[in-house]
Amino acid sequence: MNLTDRIVVVTGGAGGIGAALSRRFAAEGAAAVVIADLDADAARAVAESIGPVAHATGLDVTDEEQVRAIVDDTERRFGRIDLFCANAGVTTGGGVEVDDAGWDRAWRVNVLAHVYSARAVLPGMLSRGGGHLLHTCSAAGVLTAVGDAAYTATKHASVGFAEWLSITYRDRGIRVSALCPQGVDTPMLADGIREGHLGARVIEASGAVLTPDQVADAAIAGLAEERFLILPHPEVADYARRRAEDPDGWQAGLRKLVRRLTA
């Protein structure tokens, strides 16, 4: 996908990967970048730092009516949406003991928000015969987020949903990409490390932490090649192969790592 003169929407765009994507899309020549976030003030700050092509709005991605309203408003103002980035995500930092409210929030943000945006944006894209969906899914969606059961389950679901969309709509001109970074230097990771979440400690111990800008670089390259699976950490592909070839050995290795970190 060539981003020149494209109309783009980025959810969770007020910080981390979302803000980096928004900046990079503008730098690549996008005609408009709509930055949507639950924190509307932070979204406006990012938009102001980018310049006239950026437009900020508040958005709760778990509210389907709000998602549809953002899509409708963007299409009215700019005529179309070429690229929709469902980027917002949440972690829990816990296992089966996380309460139902925590599981529900993870499900609604990490999965249903992707469903809501697809429902809203696909009709216009299909009528025009083209469009691209970029879903931020995490390496947890192809591997496991040690220490975070809800994040693991919902990110697997988000990858599965993105794959379903790609299979179902690619022949009708819709491209779908699943962005699956591993460790990224974002407030989400910093909060997890500070609070002692096991998954965050595993990422920290790996030493393979990218900046949001590096993830944005990988996303741009993947979009240009119209790849389904975009892996900013290329080693994730090797991990996924090892996991598929020897699931028992893969799990044994992770259990060993967990024992070392929790000793």
TrEMBL record:
Class of the enzyme per the UniProt entry, highest EC level: oxidoreductase
EC number annotated for this UniProt entry: 1.-.-.-
Keywords of this entry: Oxidoreductase
Transferase among keywords: no
Residue intervals of the Ketoreductase domain: 6-182
Entry's transmembrane regions: none
Keyword Nucleotide-binding: no
GO MF, any single term: oxidoreductase activity
PROSITE patterns: ADH_SHORT
Family: Belongs to the short-chain dehydrogenases/reductases (SDR) family.
Protein name: SDR family oxidoreductase
Organism this protein belongs to: Micromonospora profundi
Phylogenetic placement of the source organism: Bacteria, Bacillati, Actinomycetota, Actinomycetes, Micromonosporales
